[in-house]
Amino acid sequence: xxxxxxxxxxxxxxxxxxxxxxxxxxxxxxxxxxxxxxxxxxxxxxxxxxxxxxxxxxxxxxxxxxxxxxxxxxxxxxxxxxxxxx
Length: 86
What we know:
Radius of gyration: 12 Å
Largest sheet: none
Number of strands: 0
Helix content: 55-70%
């Protein structure tokens, strides 16, 4: 339960830069998973969004490591829901 609360709390304080990274990738390739994951990895690998790479994204709260894929997918879903509601 504590982990779930931390996760929700983290998403409520998502940085605009991280949100914009996710939306940038969605605009490029769409929101279908795992195509979006591949695009996020490509964009980070080539630093195509504001020069952000994997390390910088991880510092902002987004890991592209395969062992974090569930959390990444939840984060993407949350950003997409927020963007639809705004």
